[in-house]
Amino acid sequence: MILAALLWAVSGSAAKFLFGTGISPFELVQLRLTIAAVVLLAWLLFSCPARLKIAPRDIGYFIILGGGAMSAVQFTYLFAISKIQVAAAILLQYLAPGLIALYTVAVTRDRLSRMTLLALAGAFIGCYLVVGAYNFTLLALNYLGVVSGIASAVGFAWYSLQGEYGMRRYHPWTVLSFALLFGAVAWNILQPPFSAFLRSYSPLQWSWIVYISLLGTLLPFGFYFKGINLIRSTRASITATLEPISAGVLSFIFLNEILSPLQIAGGIMVIAAVIVLQNEQGFDEKAPDVIRTHRGLPSRDPIDN
Fold first, then answer.
1. Alpha carbon distance 294, 19 (integer Å)
2. Rounded to whole angstroms, what are the CA distances from 188 to 81, 191, 196, 200, 201?
3. HSE of 172 in the Cβ direction (CA atoms, 13 Å)?
4. Which residues make Cβ contacts (< 8 Å) with residue 99, sequence separation at least 6?
5. Is the pLDDT of residue 216 over 50?
6. For the purposes of burial, counting CB atoms within 10 Å of the CB of 212, is it exposed (0-12), middle (13-18) or buried (19 or more)?
7. From residue 196, how far is each of 33, 132, 179 by CA, in Å?
8. In Å, what is the CA distance from 178 to each residue of 32, 35, 49, 52?
9. What is the SS3 assignment for 266-277?
10. Does residue 98 or residue 40 have the better pLDDT?
11. How far apart are CA 235 and CA 244, in angstroms?
12. Integer Cα distance of 241 and 124 in angstroms
């Protein structure tokens, strides 16, 4: 779990570095999704072809999951990183558990506990501080990045909720592989097909592109799935909060991104809110599958096709 969080954190800082070298978020999304999809599909075809079997009736579902939710969350996340600090962009995405909590309450019609309400309030106030909204000049400069970061949280919540159906019917790697596949197809339609691959990149740029595509996508998901088998899902989600902390440290060391004391305080509030939300026993029992899919997790009893 710790390795997964660290790999995701390095991926964010690596993306910021690539943007500084002239690669656009549009190009990086196309590169990331295409490489990750091809490698994962090839690996499953070689190691376990049965994982690539889906029912024809579910093709539309996977098109929406990959071409819609996966594509949206990948682009908004990377675009936010290109505009604002890496740690701030990641922390904005951590609004997703709060959005899932609100959605679940709206669906189940259950009342929020006092601790859940406090956690939600803390998450939103924390994000207000993280993006520097108290500084109107800073907020004006980062307006697009903040909006994109909030959109990435919405997209992540959408992907998590949408993924619940697939995780009940298929193995997690099956869901992830088809989500990546249709996400890659979508971005090779939105962008000229494989146009990002036609550019000339330095060996250093290619190394970080490959890292983001594989070590920043496939490997951490594998570690995360393995962690779920060893520890409870709530503890796994809490461990994932190491991601924004690690990203902040790495961005400070390598990118010279410095968070103000108020931004750091806001980040602490967001992380604390996520921990409270994941530990809220009542909420966890009312919507276990929704919580477990926050990072693309399997539901409790997936069908192993």
1. 27
2. 22, 5, 9, 18, 19
3. 21
4. 153, 154, 157
5. yes
6. buried
7. 12, 33, 20
8. 15, 13, 13, 8
9. HHHHHHHHHHHH
10. 40
11. 16
12. 16
pLDDT, one tens digit per residue, over 116-157 is 778 778 877 877 777 666 665 655 557 888 889 889 989 888
d(CA 196, CA 23): 9
Query: What sign does the CA torsion over 217, 90, 172, 72 have?
Result: negative
CB 172 within 8 A of CB 302: yes
pLDDT at 259 over 60: yes
The C-alpha atoms of residue 173 and residue 217 are separated, in whole angstroms, by 12
CA distances to 87, 137, 146, 157 from 268, in Å: 12, 23, 18, 21
Dig out the tokens for 196 from the structure.
């990002």
For 110-113, the CB contacts below 8 A with 24+ separation are 110/286, 113/280, 113/282, 113/283
Secondary structure, 3-state, 148-212: HHHHHHHHHHHHHHHHHHHHHHCCHHHHHHHHHHHHHHHHHHHCCCCHHHHCCCCHHHHHHHHHH
Backbone phi, then psi, for 105, in 5-degree steps?
-65, -40
% of the chain with per-residue pLDDT over 70: 74
Q: How far apart are CA 279 and CA 206, in angstroms?
A: 40
Total residues found in the chain within this entry: 305
Helices 114-130/96-108 angle, 10° precision: 140
Measured at the alpha carbon of residue 47, what is the angle toward residues 296 and 295, in degrees to the nearest 5? Answer: 5
Residue ranges per domain, the chain?
A: 2-292
pTM, entire model: 0.79
Sequence-distant (≥ 6) Cβ neighbours of residue 206 within 8 angstroms = none
